[in-house]
Design goal:
By secondary structure, this protein is α/β, with parallel strands linked by helices. The protein has helices spanning about 5-10, 15-30, 50-60, 85-90, 105-120, and strands at about 45, 65, 75-80, 95-100, 120-130, 130-140. About 40% of the residues lie in helices and about 20% in strands. The strands form two sheets. It has a four-stranded mixed beta sheet with strand order 3-4-6-5, covered by helices on one side. A two-stranded parallel sheet has the order 1-2. Helix 3 (about 50-60) links the parallel strand 1 and strand 2 (about 65). Helix 1 packs across helix 2. The radius of gyration is 21 Å and the shape is extended. The relative contact order is 0.10. This is Pyridoxal phosphate binding protein.
């Protein structure tokens, strides 16, 4: 069986992704008709690939990556607008190091209540600049 990774250096990541997705679609077409029409998800494993290759895959539309090992050296910073319905998801992210800004008092209250509920060992700093509230959360104990 041909493996996408074995020739991706020669043919490019984009072509390798396209080939794998084509094989997936053929497999979907061959399945029995009485099975649900659920599209398979391609999870790319990036653990041994150079950063440039992972970025190239991302630029070609591959946005789902899987890792076998959890890197304790990565420190994730969340930047930009955070929606209230995504606070729980954000707090569950391994190696979340910092939530850079929170742009409303309501959102700050929701984050604060989750902090108290979960009893996270994280530090919270709140800065107010006029009507803008900036909440900076720094996780303690991340190596």
């Amino acid at each position: 069986m041909w493996r996408a990774g074995s020739r991706s250096a020669e043919l490019g990541v984009g072509f390798a992704l396209w080939t794998v997705k084509e094989c997936m679609q053929q497999a979907v077409a061959w399945r029995p008709r009485d099975l649900p029409a659920v599209q398979p998800r391609l999870v790319a494993v990036s653990k041994t690939k150079p950063v440039e290759t992972v970025i190239e895959a991302y630029c070609h539309g591959q946005h789902t990556f899987g890792e076998k090992y959890s890197s304790r050296t990565i420190k994730w910073h969340f930047i930009g607008h955070l929606q209230k319905q995504n606070v729980n998801k954000l707090m569950a992210i391994p190696n979340l190091f910092m939530l850079e800004t929170v742009d409303s008092v309501k959102l700050a209250d929701k984050v604060n209540s989750l902090w108290q509920e979960k009893r996270f060992s994280r530090k919270v700093k709140v800065y107010s600049i006029g009507h803008l509230v900036v909440l900076i959360l720094k996780i303690t104990g991340v190596t």
